[in-house]
């Protein structure tokens, strides 16, 4: 086996110090987002029409909503104000800010925020002009150890230190909730393994830092970071953002935690957010609400007065059921009012969604007594309420049943103060078991591991299946309500919590802005285009529906899909090495996002959104020496030993950031700026390299296609967000030095990479080394965008040459590069490279060749491939499922190729 030398260890330490310095400098630069001093003459832009993603007019928002809009180069300056009006012309208070810039300093992307208190309609008009301010602007005040945000309706106090992340939520002088804490617990043995003694301990999140990222007038963002602690142990780092909007009574929360434990003895058995809720009034005027599936609501009181042997009166019963204050007890039937103390009070409630197919609600009088089963259902919306007619807290979690095992718990509601907890991992479920799933099967040496790759496609290596450093992000919402909500209002809150409404621009506008490279809105203007559009729709729908049919849900799994299918068992290969979870292999994320951009379809957006939340967190390391690397496809998301930048690829997250201005995804993009330093600590070729790995930061073995394409996308994202200027420097240096090689991106030989400036070493000797995976992890897409941003004839010529030659004849390849490129795979995928070359060279013959390549379907789907499915029923399968001759890799690359061929050479399709 290959071992790291002492020099490597020292270089790694130096690299770590350099990375820390770079991270500090990048953070500083990232905050300084001023555009260039001189701007060209600006052209302006017509008003943009916006609509709600799911259509119609939502009854409620999750506190508010924030969305992104792109603009063509040269339209507006970054300090441009924007006006928002409803379709009827009513002015809407809006807050706007730039999130992306063109190289000339004009604004590329803007973000906009409106509150749930703002006028709502089915559509809006966004245009240049003075912004309308809220009647009562949101304010943020920092003093001592607190940050206080006042929305005009609620006042929320955040702690800068200590174990109370949120000190209080107050409405109209009444404290609705207080002592907001992050809670976690672990046990030292896995559940269900028969251990005679299992030790458990609880932890509380302690704040290390809290600062204001945005301060109004419409939207405020508070970022809190820290770790969970008990005694001397401090672990499970968290990053939590709180979003508040002017005039709103809600607090939106985006919660991220990172696992930094020992998976052999740190089994998390509870992870949640908890508030104390003061209880007011008599127990019969204290209300509990749970949202079930759809519009279902369970409405109960802590002390029920309906269904008793004696009747308190219709007015009393109706008031309690509807959540209003009951009439004074002096008006009740005395046979009830005199015996209230004999009616049990149920202070504890729990809705438990331990799997994707069923939830149950239980209640009990108090700890030490048995739980009663109340009811159950299939998939709960994920919202609960505890309070009274004088105010209470609604609390919930997005994707509640999809991210099981989850729970909404109320305890102590019969006393002076209830505890309301959103459990992102329910204590009622078995403990989280993150251990590797097999014992290594004797694969102790690299030759044995390469043999294993030949049979299960799993790239195993001892110690590499660690979850140390993976993360998960969850979205929650808390409403400080002035009274118990009506059943109708509660269902509206539940819907907003489950699917937060989002405003979007049309595919036509986004396309016309020139963002995200080569794509175009759906076009059914000819029979050939209609046929291809139908195939794209059918293929996308099949993969999307497989999520539910195959129950690809759960805390660590939801958002990903499977890689390959096993037709004999009629199931995806969930248990076979590298054929299981897809982990962004061959750019599935890109395909899903481009499908949404073209169609504007809500289901397409939500499908891609879930994948972005998953693959950016779970499939990537955020701590430790592999920080910035992702894990290749496998049975467990972190299990494979191939840790690569092609998986952590910023290109897969960029869409969601600009379309929603989501700060957490912005963090993920920013994390990747220095991911090239990972080549100092991990040798990607260790299993085939002979001798010692002795990396030199000025001469690293970084691939110029798959590796560099992923790094380039991180630098592109940082550059367009006006972050560290070295990101642009490395991006341009890499592209120009690759283009300077005799054969550009196809050049072979011992070419090395300089970590400090992003340059590749030079050579004058022509040789060829090219693989089929070279451009299918975003290289084509990043180069398409980069060449529109820089004016470099040599870079453009070399890239166009690469695109032209990949699917060319061997004679053409030999003529241009001195040797043929061998038997290359994935030729259908590279039809989009041919199409790009056709446009750049104005070559109709290449355009027609691109369509032939797409239709031939090499390593993909030929023209006559059936994009249809067959229903498989029991007893052949456990549950009825649809089966099709489709694989995720082929679908992703066919989708990307077809989309880009339509955009580039669509007029040659016939």
From TrEMBL:
Keyword Signal included in the entry's annotation: yes
InterPro entries to which the protein is assigned, alphabetical: PcRGLX/YetA-like, PcRGLX/YetA_2nd, PcRGLX/YetA_3rd, PcRGLX_1st, TAT_signal
Stretches assigned to the PcRGLX/YetA-like C-terminal alpha/alpha toroid domain: 500-909
Keyword entries, A-Z: Signal
N-terminal signal peptide: 1-31
Ranges where the PcRGLX/YetA-like central beta-sandwich domain occurs: 139-494
UniProt-listed PANTHER family: CONCANAVALIN A-LIKE LECTIN/GLUCANASE, TAT PATHWAY SIGNAL SEQUENCE DOMAIN PROTEIN
This protein's name: Tat pathway signal sequence domain protein
Lineage, highest ranks first: Bacteria, Bacillati, Actinomycetota, Actinomycetes, Kitasatosporales
